[in-house]
Amino acid sequence: MNLSFDLRALRYFVAVAEHGGFTRAAQTLHVAQSAVSQTIAGLESRLELRLFHRHERRISLTPEGELLLGQARELLGQAESIELAMREVHGLVKGEVRIGIPSMLGSYYFPPLLMGFKSRHPGIRLTVVEAGTRRLQRMIAEGELDLGVVTEDASTHRLECHRFLREEMVVCVPRDHRFAQRESVTARDVLSEPLVLFQDGYFHREFVDRLATETGQQPQVAFQSNLIPLTKAIVRQGFGITTFLRRVVEEPDLAAVSFEPSAWLDLSLAWNQGAYLSRAERTFVDFVLEHSPRLQH
């Protein structure tokens, strides 16, 4: 069976689609613009389909192009995995792990793990990306990240997930707040207070949104920020309260109060289901799972 395309043509097509034009795609690919244009024209001719709408100053994908884009990304990802697997047969181990971590974990839970791994495997480069769990899921699916930290739910069914941390979500208040001397507070109590929340897409925000859905009570959002030091400063000054994983609240001028009933969050290390993991990636996963009990303390 003679195919209408090859991997090079698909790589050029994806680059044009992602960069929105032939010039920027050619610059990224380090080839002449004419080579990109001719390759795309040849691909369209062989497929007998128009893949791009060509406007005066921009291009856009046709419906057929949109369909091909998703398939092309998947096929190129598989090709890269095959090449990596063959290279590793000869001992050429991939020397980089790209992992996405939500800011709360990156600041308070992962530093000892990352430093410990780097100490044991100095030849492996770690690239850490901070983002909300939903964005991390998309980046893993699109091949921008090898691994990421997610909260498991129905949307993660296409990911291979391994739980490594179970931590309590608590209410964070200043020491002089009326909640500070309590052992626990209800979701209704919390939602009645001015809140400082992360933006959509972070597990912290989804946790609060879920409480609102369960109680039928709308949260009173006073501030939105993904910056943990800023959120803490706002809470200290008495302009609102928030929720954090318990370890994040371990400061003398802040109090951590449990929910009633207590609320626990399960966090998992995830990658694409069926994806090939390099030796470096497998080694990192094993290291995290081996040392995860230490994160509970």
Automatic annotation (TrEMBL):
Residues 5-62 form the HTH lysR-type domain. CDD domains: PBP2_LTTR_substrate (cd05466). The keyword Transcription regulation applies. InterPro entries: HTH-type_LysR_regulators, LysR_HTH_N, LysR_subst-bd, WH-like_DNA-bd_sf, WH_DNA-bd_sf. GO terms for molecular function: DNA binding; DNA-binding transcription factor activity. Transmembrane segments: none annotated. Pfam families: HTH_1, LysR_substrate. Keywords: DNA-binding, Transcription, Transcription regulation. GO terms for cellular component: cytosol. Belongs to the LysR transcriptional regulatory family. PANTHER family: HTH-TYPE TRANSCRIPTIONAL REGULATOR YBHD (PTHR30419), NITROGEN ASSIMILATION TRANSCRIPTIONAL ACTIVATOR-RELATED (PTHR30419:SF8). This is DNA-binding transcriptional LysR family regulator. It comes from Modicisalibacter xianhensis.
